[in-house]
Structure formats: C-alpha cells, structure tokens
Amino acid sequence: MKIFFTLFLALAFTFLKAQSALDEVVPIKQLIPDIGLDLRYSTVNNFTNQKLYSIDEAYLSIGAINRLKLVHDSLKQIKQYNGIDYPKGLGIKIFDGYRPRAVQYLMFEIFPNPTYVADPGSGSIHNRGGAVDVSIYDISTGNELLMPTEFDWFGPEASHSYSNLPQNIIANRTLLYNMMVDVGGFVPYDAEWWHYTIPGASSLPLLDFQMK
Ligand SMILES: [Zn+2]
C-alpha cells in the first residue's frame, strides 16, 4: 500500500511540475526564433497613441507558445494558398502576447469598452499569458496577408461573423482561424479576428511583471 502511495505522490508532483512549467511566461522568441513580431504597444502605433512597453519582445506562457509553434511550423509548409504563391511559406506574426496588468488599467482608462478592452478588475487573459493577438505574413516579402481590418479595429468589421468583404480577405481570415483552432487548439474570440486564447486560460494567475 505504501509503495502505491509513494508512487501516487511522485506522479502528482510530476504533474504539478509539468503544469507550472507550462504556465511560466517567457519570451516567445526563446522557443520560436523565427516568429514574426509587429509589437504595436512597443511603439506609438496603437489605439492609445502611447508607447506602453519599454522593450520590443513578446512574452507568453510556455503552454501557449508550444501551441503557437505548431501553427507557425504548419504555415511554413504552405507554399500556395487561394491562387497566390508563397515561395518561402507563411508564418505567424504577433501584435501582442502577455500584457502587464498595470497596462490593462491604462488601456481601460482610455477605452472603457469591455468588448474590446477587458476590465482590469477581473483582468484580461493577456494579463495571464494565455492570449495572443496574431496575423499571418508572407515569409518571402515580410508583408502581412490582407485581413478584414487593422489590428485593434474597434468595430463590427473586426468580427469573425462580418462577411461584407472580398473573397480573398475572407479566405485569409479563415486560414488563420483554421490553423489556430484546428492545429493549435486555440479558442477564437468572435469580436476580434486577431485574438486567440488557450483553453482553460482563465485559471492562470494574473501577472504584473514588466518585460525587461
Ligand atoms: Zn487580444
């Protein structure tokens, strides 16, 4: 009996260790060196018109990065899509990942609309390292594929259900959706075509460390 109990403890410890390792928030480039970055909050080119991060590096939980790597590596294999050639394949580019909670308070002060900016009181999944804002880019040219709107477009045109768009733009949005959901196992958010979360992310701890 005692040996079973010891075995149980060992297994439980391994599981907890694995869980906490996946929750750890680290720079994405550490695990996906060739991921594309277009970190708008590290510039003034965002809805706040302020530079909110002091460094040009995106962080995310290891569990989310592992999923994102599957998506990025699968996109690299796509050399043609919807009648267009992509000789070096496609890739994921990131607008935002982990976001310190202090930044969430500032954003909500500027734009207090919880459809687009989560209430900092309960916190955003971005504050937990479990949400990522992404698009697809052409590795040969570095250009983003045409998508329905700019990042952080606060209007119905940003929704997955918005369909008054040219066919090629719907095809690009659908490719991102299918790759993130079917390959990465991410959960989409209907109001924003760029925002994806990992399952169970609301149980991750709220964080407020500054990226350095
Ligand atoms: Zn987001």
Overall pLDDT metric? 92
Count the strands? 9
- Molecules bound to protein: zinc ion
Shape: globular
Cα Rg: 18 Å
Share in β-strands: 15-25%
Helix content: 25-40%
Largest sheet, in brief, is: 5 strands, mixed
Give me the secondary-structure category.
alpha+beta
- Largest sheet, spatial ordering of strands: 2-6-7-9-8
Architecture (CATH level 2) name: 2-Layer Sandwich
Order of helices and strands: HEEEHEEEHEHEE
Number of helices: 4
Low-pLDDT regions? none
Could you characterize what this model shows?
The chain is an alpha+beta fold and 212 residues long. The chain has one domain: 2-Layer Sandwich (Muramoyl-pentapeptide Carboxypeptidase, domain 2), CATH 3.30.1380. Helix content is 30%, strand content 17%. The chain has four helices and nine strands, in the order αβββαβββαβαββ. The strands form three sheets. The protein has a five-stranded mixed sheet, with helices on one face. Strands 1-3 form a two-stranded antiparallel sheet. Zinc ion (ZN) binds next to β7.
